[in-house]
Amino acid sequence: MPRGRPSRESIYRQFAEALSELQRFGGMPLPAESSAIWDDIWHLEAHNSTAIEGNTLVLREVEALLDRRKAVGAKDLKDYMEVLGYGEAAQWVYAQATAPDGYAGEGLVTITEVRSVHQQVMQRVWDVAPHPDATQEEGPGSFRRHDIRAFDGGMRPPPWIEVPERLSTWVDEVNLFAAQLSSLDVGALDPRDIPVRLAAIHCEFERIHPFLDGNGRTGRLLLNLILVRLGFPPAIVFKRDRVKYLDALDHADKGEYGPLAELIARSVIDNLHRFVVPSIAGPARLVPLQALVVPEIGYNALRQAARRGRLDAHQGSDGTWRSSRKSVDAYLQQRYSRE
């Protein structure tokens, strides 16, 4: 493990503390009330999740396409349609953070919703570039009717005839997980429980591979559907972590969920600190230093200032430094005065 890199167990503890902190702030903000938060997540997720699958659009092109429906650049039409379809599906997923479409009483996720997410993700791109091996029964939202060879890492999808039953079992497991969480105090759980369970759920969906194409994008969106309906921030797997992510899926397929659980936990923590906490915490409220980063000063500089006593901050028993926006503004003002 590289020097200075937090251990996996410490990441799990940070994940649990982040969720407790979010609950103290009153939970995730409404998408309608905090559109800037969700738009930033939307752009990054649509860009990175499609880039993992080979999409060539850069972030500014994704932003222009999603915000203004403007195709900037000279990329293949297929690439634009991939991002547009994914972006539309992601918007529906984010809306479920506060306005679920009738899932109450039916469980956290339904098979109909799984198929609907895939249809939203794939319909636009399928219209211009359908899968060459697809039958009429295998379009967007329809289960595959082909067997798929084992992947390079060894993951072996089941025969297509088993997909409906396997996916039904997967949905039952997701809903059981949600029911167990709702009956427990999240703060009383072993810190690793939630990330490891999420990793197992995500890996099993990818193992089932219920559709002929688009399973990776659909699986990552379903993971975020589960997260936001549980009241957590969505996760973003960055394209720079593609190899790490695929390797983590291979380990999870062999029963070693730690690498994938850590990747998911890190992403949720990062999104919470980067996008959510700065917008929902008042100027005098103590929050982790990661949530107070601004263009004028980065995390390492804030931590050094806290350690030296120049920034009014407090280090908790978990080792996390916390300060407030008000204290950071005061420190920056003093620093500029000295300069």
From TrEMBL:
Residues 109-266 form the Fido domain. Pfam families: Fic. PROSITE patterns: FIDO (PS51459). This is Fic family protein.
